[in-house]
Design goal:
Length: 438
């Protein structure tokens, strides 16, 4: 499922981080068992009523001087306009209206994107409302008062945000063509791979109906089947600041991964897996997407008959949270194994949509529990009653047990491995929901 993207834009100190934390809460770090991956507060998943969306903070680091403020704000707004379905423009009732607010409001208005104007630090609604009305002058609609600190007005604000979600975006999901995102840090060869794929296959470039984003997707025809390659070219931004570059790269990854069925995560063979690679891989993993690790520039390293084997082990070791990912060694330069990439993509799509019958699943679970007794604690033993698959993309299973607290991560992993032994599910993560049945 592709979730809408909501971007927050606002000057430093208006309360973006505070609001972000209030909305995302604990969810900012869903995956805690690998280092450095989700600690950045750049994006988070939010659920409000029955709606889910991904929130991104385009803010980044504070500009060093007042002079740079306006260009910093422009850049934030541009990124938000390029990537978001809805933009939240956050202002500060204490600072009041400042000149750059008007400039940003102009940009947002011209973009035609839905904008929600949020006035923060309204800690006392009765007293401060007159000051809130001042923000009508921005000409981008009704200002919505909140206090991020005291969590006031947040519900009304979210109601306003989700009102703007476009039902037409859901059309994208009815499009049966597989959507592929090629991600990876700068210079690993993403554009070269896409260009090479386009060169060897018939291409239809089109603006796909229902996409409201500015990204132009590329449709590639391979063996009479159409594949949509997601492009977010607009986000290839330049910056002298390393943190900024990394931020752009992460925003670009989150937005592309969100819309993809399968993610091709490209790494540079001559560099190996870096920390930034692990971060990017973590984004695809969290979102339950199909994953292929493409080790590119395979032409550029010296090899013998063991190199692939050793390299595979090294990648598996570093990306140990996604052992299910397929690994393929390619060269965009020579075209080596690029045709095979389509075969692997095809396989991963099949696995993401695989449904296993309940009867078969329960047989596997019974056999597994017979072979290795479930754990017990203080005289109480875990009992597994029943398992059933409730969703695809990613395949999601519900296991009913007597006591959730007894179902340790390691025992869930054990059951997962048994299911994988039977059905493979290569290239896709599996989700397990544990429910209690007395
Ligand atoms: P950012 O730079 O936009 O991410 O802003 P921060 O979230 O870091 O907030 C800047 C300052 O404003 C911090 O000292 C916050 O505690 C404070 N702040 C944030 N929200 C509120 C609020 O609702 N009321 C008040 N009084 N202060 C707030
Ligand atoms: P991107 O930033 O990830 O899109 O990377 P590019 O596609 O722009 O490639 C970055 C650099 O790596 C360019 O100089 C490419 O020519 C080079 N490159 C890309 N793929 C390969 C490859 O398979 N082998 C070698 N030797 N160089 C490559």
């Amino acid at each position: 499922m592709s979730k809408p993207i909501v971007a927050i834009v606002g000057r430093p100190n208006v309360g973006k981080s505070t609001l972000f934390n209030a909305l995302a809460g604990e969810k900012i770090s869903i995956v805690k068992d690998y280092p450095g991956v989700t600690r950045d507060r750049i994006y988070a998943d939010v659920t409000w009523l029955d709606k889910q969306f991904t929130m991104i903070d385009t803010g980044g680091i504070e500009p060093e001087s007042k002079d740079l403020m306006l260009s910093h704000m422009r850049q934030q707004a541009e990124i938000a306009i390029e990537t978001a379905d809805v933009i939240m423009f956050l202002v500060d009732v204490r600072q009041g209206l400042v000149d750059s607010d008007f400039k940003v409001a102009d940009m947002l208005r011209k973009s035609g994107k839905p904008v929600v104007l949020v006035v923060n630090k309204v800690d006392n609604f009765d007293k401060l409302m007159p000051d809130v009305y001042e923000f009508y002058n921005l000409g981008i609609g009704d200002p919505i008062p909140i206090s991020a600190n005291s969590k006031l007005g947040i519900g009304d604000m979210l109601d306003e945000v989700i009102k703007h979600f476009n039902p037409e975006d859901l059309l994208e999901e009815e499009d049966e063509r597989p959507r592929i995102a090629i991600v990876g840090k700068p210079n690993v060869g993403k554009s070269s791979i896409i260009n090479k794929l386009i060169g060897e296959n018939r291409v239809i470039v089109s603006d796909i109906a229902g996409t409201t984003r500015d990204a132009i997707d590329t449709v590639v025809n391979h063996n009479d089947k159409e594949y949509v390659f997601i492009d977010t070219a607009g986000l290839r931004r330049k910056s002298k600041i390393k943190e900024e570059l990394e931020r752009f790269s992460i925003i670009r990854t989150v937005t592309a991964v969100e819309r993809a069925d399968v993610v091709v995560m490209v790494i540079d063979a001559s560099e190996g897996v870096t920390e930034q690679d692990a971060k990017i891989a973590g984004i695809a993993h969290e979102r339950g997407k199909g994953i292929i690790i493409a080790v590119n520039k395979w032409d550029a390293i010296e090899k013998n008959d063991k190199t692939i084997y050793e390299y595979t082990n090294k990648v598996r070791e570093i990306l140990s949270f996604m052992t299910y990912a397929e690994i393929i060694f390619i060269s965009a330069l020579t075209g080596q194994r690029l045709p095979k990439l389509f075969d692997v993509i095809e396989m991963v799509i099949q696995n993401q949509t695989l449904r296993i019958q309940t009867g078969v699943l329960n047989e596997i679970m019974m056999e597994a529990t017979a072979m290795q007794q479930p754990p017990s604690d203080k005289g109480k033993r875990l009992k597994l009653f029943y398992i059933t698959q409730v969703a695809i993309k990613p395949p999601t299973f519900v296991i009913f047990v007597n006591d959730k607290a007894l179902m340790h991560f390691s025992y869930t992993r054990y059951i997962e491995n048994k299911i994988r032994d039977a059905f493979g599910f290569k290239g896709t993560s599996l989700r397990f929901l544990i429910r209690e049945r007395k």
